[in-house]
Amino acid sequence: MRFPQDLGKKLLSRASAILVVGLLVLATTRGWQPSLKNPPPLTHSQIDSMARLQKSVRHFSVAIGNRNYRSIASLDRTAEDIAKALRALGYQVEIFPYQTLGMTFKNILATDPLRSPELPRILVSAHYDTCFNPGADDNASGVAGMLELARLVKDQDLPANVQFAAFVNEEPPFFRTEHMGSRVFLKDHKERVKGLSGVITLEMIGYFSDRPFSQEYYPLLGPFYPNRADFITVIGNYASRDLLGRVKKSFQAHRQITVASIIAPEFLPGVTYSDHWSFWREGIPAVMVTDTAFMRNPHYHKLSDLPETLDYERMARVIHGLHKAILDFNSAKINTPNSISTESD
Fold this sequence. Notes:
By secondary structure, the chain is of the alpha/beta class. Helix content is 37%, strand content 17%. Helix 4 links the parallel strand 3 and strand 4 (161-167).
């Protein structure tokens, strides 16, 4: 049996179109843009930060290890160690317990008692539980980064009252539910977040790669972003666009590491995958600072998420970049409750 000639042409045309679309989609799931070349040499302060970051990550992911509701003793020890570290830096630490599944879990908030409560407030947060694995990148890296940033800003002349929060139960089965630690905190302690100018959530900040095509993207995004997984990303929603812009601008000005950013709707996969989602639900500007997790890290949610897989030099550059961003807020005039100044960049 022979196909009519015009039918054969139609089938060939459709097959060609499908092939072209498939190749286009495939090509745009990898980055096309170059990354920052020749960042400045590490300072002595950054070298010191590298050592502290590595020590913290190893402590939480190896000395303690798996940290979730199936290992409640490990969760409690982690909370105690975070609180102890923040108190040692001179912060006033508050513990906020709550119950679910018949167990008690703890959120942590640290405030510098020497800073004026009249200053605009910025919150830096990280979750300390894991997805049934050691969780070196997810999220010992975020906790280590939060503790190091708390050390860097302590006793400095800052334009804002910077607080630090460690949230529990970000991972399944609590993920994006009303039992998620940050969600519970916001519902039960609204007075603690009243007037917040912005939130910076540290979510996996330790995995990087110099290998070509090591960074994945959702289709059509690749042409606008770096090819190698050697950058940090800042993610926000439309209401957080000014906060995102200021953080990105500071990173770019200080040239510590390539920074990418995206303002995206919540339905895009990955955009709401951390505690910043809880603040978005309350209308508070919040951004997630991340290495993009499963878009680059092959150890995501696996037993192989270990300290040896992380890049502590780039982690130090990220934290010192955020330190500069906080100092740069001096020109942002962040004095309106629940909003960041909308003056032009």
